[in-house]
Amino acid sequence: MILIHISARFANTCNEIFSTFASIVISMDYKELSRQEYTARINRVMDYISRNLDKQIDLSMMADIASFSPYHFHRIFTFIVGETPNNFVSRIKLEKAAQLLHDNPKISISEITFQCGFGNVSSFSRAFKSYFEMSAKEFRLQDKAIYVKNGIRYSKNCQPISKIGKNKQLVNTQFCSVEFNKIIIMDTKIEIKQMPELNLIYCRHMGAFNKIGQAYEKLFKWAAPRGLVTPTTKTVTVYLDDPAITSMDKVRQDASIIVERDVKVEGEIGKSTVSEGKYAVGHFEIKETEFEEAWNTMCSWLTESGYQPGDGSTYELYHNHYSEDSEFRFIVDICIPVKPL
């Protein structure tokens, strides 16, 4: 009887432990699913903003896209992104304006004003000067002879081209000893090509470039069981912000794979399209430490090509997995949308 009583107590204890553990696991899974769902909704809002910079976008509109009340959307967006929705919209519009000012010397400031969704030149000028600590005209007249280090554009005197007020990027002073004419330019083939439309599924990463592997891990973990990863699957990193203008901790990059059919996505996994069009395409076979030189090569070529950056996203198209290469090289095309000067 004693043994039976002890066994019964032991069984009850085990059941209690199992029930407690199960509830913790279920709770953890629920929290993770909730976080992924919230992230997906915020990503949809970001994608809408990027596609509609010329429009007036208010809090209610963003909340509707995310399927939240304005009150809850404001709190959730601010928690996930690290800035309020209105500040995000303003920043993205101003940084797009800065990119247009730099890359399109023939477009007028008034045209840029309306392309970026500002009601008039006066309001745009005030907002631009407040954010960049210089006027739009002064920004455009900065030294055009540039080179790129770690994603930041520098002039010959080693000053960063972008100035973002209180948000300005910190400059590593060791770069200032590098002279423009000592930049390493790779010997490779760069050509203008008509690139096809790419249908992608993605996992978004925000922050340092070398951390994007975490987003790729999540993407493949989701895609592989659904039969979306095959020996011929190609990966694509899409850059949504210009690191010469956007603070590095806010630069968005999409870890993506090309898909041939419509895919129902969920959680942190979204879907997007890279537009077909004319691109400058540089083919490289490089090690991880050589991406900087590859991008410098593309930028150097572009300044002498008779082309300027066009509308659309810059991306890297990978043709292999570096771990399968005997020298651990990436076989990659760097693709920059272009149009004539």
In short:
Mean pLDDT is 80; it is low at 1-28 and 143-182. The chain starts with a helix and ends with a strand. The protein has 341 residues and is an alpha+beta fold.
Tell me what you see in this structure.
This protein has helices spanning 2-51, 59-66, 70-81, 85-103, 109-115, 121-132, 136-140, 213-223, 291-303, and strands spanning 146-149, 152-155, 190-195, 198-206, 235-239, 252-258, 269-274, 277-286, 307-309, 314-318, 330-340. The protein starts with a helix and ends with a strand. The chain is α+β, with helices and mostly antiparallel strands. Helix 1 (2-51) crosses helix 2 and helix 2 crosses helix 3 (70-81). The model is unreliable at 1-28 and 143-182 (pLDDT under 50). It is built from nine helices and eleven strands. The longest helix is centred in the N-terminal third of the chain and has 50 residues, at 2-51. Strands 3, 4, 5, 6, 7, 8, 9, 10 and 11 form a nine-stranded antiparallel β-sheet that branches. Strand 1 and strand 2 (152-155) form a beta hairpin.
Topology, pairings included?
Layout: H1 2-51, H2 59-66, H3 70-81, H4 85-103, H5 109-115, H6 121-132, H7 136-140, E1 146-149, E2 152-155, E3 190-195, E4 198-206, H8 213-223, E5 235-239, E6 252-258, E7 269-274, E8 277-286, H9 291-303, E9 307-309, E10 314-318, E11 330-340
Antiparallel strand pairs: 1-2, 3-8, 4-6, 4-7, 5-6, 5-10, 8-11, 9-11, 10-11
Helix pairs in contact: 1-2, 2-3
Main sheet summary: 9 strands, antiparallel
Total strand count, please?
11
Radius of gyration: 24 Å
Low-confidence stretches: 1-28, 143-182
Distance between the termini: 93 Å
Q: What percentage of residues falls in helices of 4 or more residues?
A: 40-55%
Anisotropy-based shape: globular
Class from helix and strand fractions: alpha+beta
Question: Proportion of β residues?
Answer: 15-25%
- Average predicted local confidence, pLDDT: 80
Order of helices and strands: HHHHHHHEEEEHEEEEHEEE
Number of helices: 9
